[in-house]
Amino acid sequence: MTSNEFFPTAPDDTRTEILEATYRALREHGYDALTIQKIGEEFDKSTSLLYHHYEGKDDLLVDFLDYMLERLEDDIPFETVDDPKGALETVLDHALAPSMEDEREEFARAMNELRSQATHDPAYREAFTRHDRFFHDRLTAILREGIDQGDFREVDPDRLAALLQATFNGAMTQRVTSDSEEREVSVEDVRAELEAVLETYLLEDTGE
Amino acid sequence: MTSNEFFPTAPDDTRTEILEATYRALREHGYDALTIQKIGEEFDKSTSLLYHHYEGKDDLLVDFLDYMLERLEDDIPFETVDDPKGALETVLDHALAPSMEDEREEFARAMNELRSQATHDPAYREAFTRHDRFFHDRLTAILREGIDQGDFREVDPDRLAALLQATFNGAMTQRVTSDSEEREVSVEDVRAELEAVLETYLLEDTGE
């Protein structure tokens, strides 16, 4: 998840320019220390423009979350899952990567802080519920297609998607809030064990 | 997880009195809005005593986390797992309860906020790493005993414990940061699917 993934070209409107500045400031400072002023320092135009567009830091950050989701929705087509096994593997590679580039790790830390705002702020709660729903639906579509094609066993795709999503969210939380040298919070272990579980639960007896 | 679980009798020393006041204030206000002053309002003695014992809010909260872990360690014996299947079921009942009392949910929200501090504060990071290690070791002991007794298949107990822990952490995160009416973030689905997975992966072919 590099800057270029979300902001591929020179931004062509003020909102996108603001949100790209927000992305940089959020990675650098984290949620707690973030201020509109610090976002302004990453922004080429006047900081006063930020106040013109947004009521405050949280208003801006919720719009930022919406923008990130829109980009994901554009990038990941729902209609077609040609290769369900490959698609599931890609999801695992992304959600349980053994290591992350610094930029992506900084971003994951900031997203953890933003998600924590959802414990008491309904706007964040709505945004993360939409995020969860998007990934849940994406996972369910992959599983359903794999069942239809005979690649996967006849599991309940909705329920397995819920289990996978909880696992991904927990592994990411542990990754950014625990000491990484701890074997017990190792994302590698989670990935290896999940592969073993899916081999038994999802793939066996499908005639391959 | 009621107040009585952690603070069963009248506190018998100033530290415990302070930490019980912290528990109440944290549930009521959450991390962001919490101040030493608000903890003082829950405290029978002078607020100045809080400043005498702690350098500030975060110093106090990290001690609070350590205290909670000490209590858990006292309550859950490690030496003996007489009934591994029953013990695993108890862990699932606790970690993936279909609903929580208000008090426990308020506490879970506050713990999510505290955990988020670990993204940028090493003291919180150490505390949550210790928490994770405790639960990981507890889960591993249950799985190992079940394998030894022939109740469970010959899985890697360390790795499966890591997977279960990530799942529990993610389900709890989603519970306190998503709209609960969403089927896709339903803890009931995660629990039901995890039971189905463990039936296939951990229990089948153990001769029962």
Short description:
Two copies of one chain form a homodimer. With 208 residues, chain A is mostly helical.
Structural class category of chain A? mainly alpha
Count of DSSP strands of chain A: 0
Number of helices of chain A: 10
| SSE string of chain A, helices as H and strands as E | HHHHHHHHHH
Distance between the termini of chain A: 34 Å
Question: Which chains make the largest contact?
Answer: A-B, 57 and 57 residues
**Unreliable segments of chain A (pLDDT under 50, ≥5 consecutive)?**
none
Roughly how much helix do the residues of chain A carry, as a percent range?
over 70%
Give me the oligomer status.
homodimer
Strand content of chain A: under 5%
Task: Specify the overall morphology of chain A.
Answer: elongated
Features:
homodimer; 208 residues; mainly alpha; 10 helices; 0% strand
Walk me through what this model shows.
By secondary structure, chain A is mostly helical. Chain A has ten helices and no strands. In chain A, helix 5 (57-75) packs parallel to helix 8 (122-148), helix 6 (84-95) runs antiparallel to helix 8 (122-148) and helix 7 (102-117) crosses helix 9 (157-177). The longest helix of chain A has 27 residues, at 122-148. The model of chain A has no long low-confidence stretch (mean pLDDT 89).
